[in-house]
Amino acid sequence: MRGLEGRAFLVTGGGSGIGRGTCERLADAGAKVAAVDVDEERAAAVAADLRDRGADAAISVQCDVGEEDQIVAAMKTTLAELGGLAGVVTSAGIFAEGDMQPLADVTLETFERTLRVNLAGTFLTLRHALPAIVDGGGGAAVTVASTAGLRGHGFGSGYTASKGGVIALTRLAAEQYGRRGVRANVVCPGATASEGMGSVFATEEGAQGVGRGIPLGRPARPEETGATIAWLLSEEASYVSGQVIAVDGGATVR
Length: 254
What we know:
Layout: E1 8-12, H1 17-28, E2 32-37, H2 40-52, E3 57-62, H3 68-82, E4 87-90, H4 108-135, E5 139-144, H5 148-151, H6 157-177, E6 182-189, H7 204-211, H8 222-233, E7 244-247
Parallel strand pairs: 1-2, 1-4, 2-3, 4-5, 5-6, 6-7
Helix pairs in contact: 1-8, 3-4, 4-6
């Protein structure tokens, strides 16, 4: 894809799932990648794998996106080691076990913790990435929300609220930073077979179960969503901004 080779991108949640799939797509296109994750070992393993695949430059940074000082440090490391920043992907997110119940049974602690990572973490990442992208001559931001933010799933009060907030926040960023050379778009994944939140869909039983509600009949692979994200970061999407794109196998048509 045009416009990725030799340019630097930071991916939060880069140690697994969609974040890892995005790192791989970017590296395969010749980009320089910072895999940022709260799990230091996973991030380091991804960066090592990217280098083995022939990435021009790939680094790992340990970071809790809900802590501003850690975001600041991650940005400084990325800028110093990769020589700038052309784009950012906010893939870090959680779905707390305590959120899997009716709204009235979800504790405030669970709700606030989910928003701290999913929504405040996205805000903090954008807050410190956008000026760096502007200073570097422009680029793109892609946030990762969820189809839950589009229609609700019947569970996950904190998760659903946080992902709806990510959508609104990203559209605001598209409006505010468009004339400063930054495009901002939202990807809303559906069921994705991966580690962590997507582990249930990685089993044969889980894949078959969720597949019955998806027109394409199966959950996504992380690299499929990563391909859409990489395209949005590339020059091939140079006139796409402020958009909310569901990567869900057609699930939201129902």
